[in-house]
Write a structure and sequence with these properties.
This protein has helices at about 65-80, 100-105, 150-160, 205-210, 215, and strands spanning about 90-95, 115-130, 130-150, 165-175, 180-190. It is of the alpha+beta class and about 220 residues long. It has a five-stranded antiparallel β-sheet.
Amino acid sequence: MDHAPPPPPPPPPPPSSRREDEISIPSTAMPPPPPPPPPHLFKSSRPASIVPSPPPVPSGAFEPIDKAHYWQFLKDTKANMPGEPFQPFYMFFYGSLMDPEVLQAILDLPELPTIRPATISGFRIKMWGIYPTLIPCHSGSVTGTVWKVTSEAHFDRLAAYETAAYRWDECDAVLEGGEVLRNCRTFCWAGEPDSKELEDGSFDLERYQKYFKSSVTRRRSPVP
């Protein structure tokens, strides 16, 4: 006796159907994380590093001088000056101020100053970076120029231009014809003569005029 064939298996459930024991995942997107706290709320257990200040630049190098620093410097400078009325004197220059146009710009002179070649003894030049300075030397001599300072205000401006890295000292300057100018002044290194900041060398005026002079002369106020 023949048996009837078994019924066909039920078709598989469609892909969209889920089993009751499956965990449903909400279709909504995850919320964004909260914003970070403001920067001032962060605290570090590490102390802030201290960055040392750069070394001073002798001529302020060509940047405007801070007014408070300027007056304090003049006060310190004048503490070493004789306590008597100002008397004109010759100043001996051996660096950038040998250039009349630089001297004119620093002092804001209406006309180009007249300078004269001269030599002093008892000093020698050492270099502080690109800047020359004088240190005592019994057998040394330095060639430069002299110019007569007739105003205390002019000397004040020269002292501020040189900065506290220099101090003035007296010297005797010998002109090309042999005439000796007594009790001249010149700016010398204010630190120790054997300072590690100084190096042997000489000042190249032509190099200064080519690369650095314009930084000073272009700041000069036009004279009407």
